[in-house]
From TrEMBL:
PANTHER family: HTH-TYPE TRANSCRIPTIONAL REGULATOR BETI, HTH-TYPE TRANSCRIPTIONAL REGULATOR RUTR. It comes from Microbispora hainanensis. It holds the Pfam family TetR_C_43. SUPFAM superfamilies: Homeodomain-like, Tetracyclin repressor-like, C-terminal domain. Keywords: DNA-binding, Transcription, Transcription regulation. The keyword Zinc does not apply. InterPro entries: Homeodomain-like_sf, HTH-type_TetR-like_transc_reg, HTH_TetR, Tet_transcr_reg_TetR-rel_C_sf, TetR_SbtR-like_C. GO terms for molecular function: DNA-binding transcription factor activity; transcription cis-regulatory region binding. It comes from the Bacteria. Residues 6-65 form the HTH tetR-type domain. Residues 28-47 bind DNA. This is TetR/AcrR family transcriptional regulator.
Amino acid sequence: MRADAARNSGKILRAAREAWAEQGPDALLEDIARRAGVGIATLYRHFPDKAGLVRAALDQSFAEEIAPAIERALGDDDPRRALTAVLEAAMSTADRERNTLAAARNSGAVTAEASSPFIESLTLLARRGQEAGLIRADLVADDLPRIMVMLMGVLWTMDPGSDGWRRYLALVLDALSPGATSPLPDAVPLRSPRKRGGWPV
């Protein structure tokens, strides 16, 4: 991609995230183009449909906010602290980007495939925690995307920016402790959503 095209793409994605944050997930593409300082034709050249725009906006947010947290966590010698830091980064980002997530859900851009790099990182950190005796041994990989759906669900019950999600993350982290008293029932296979809207976040 040429440098000017890359700049335009980045401007469009930032404008989209700002527009969704201010106007909600149904912000018009024409408004996003104006905010980015480009014509609507330029926007469509980069992103032929809204689902592609939303997916790219989520990728940009992930690269800026969550990927650095994962990189730091992978170098942390305390796997429980590392897992906590990544979950906090994910929830903090989701809180700020909740309208981007809503736009993604509405356009079908939130899929198991889109979230797989993040879930793979969580799985690695959780496994390290289990090996160190810091995460309960009966946690399985399929639990992690479900836990994230549970945590994301609380965002819609509170005002943006309230940090109220921290209470529920603390409850989840306590439940992941090896000292948790109740054994878990058997896990059922993870079923990826196929209907429009994808994961219910």
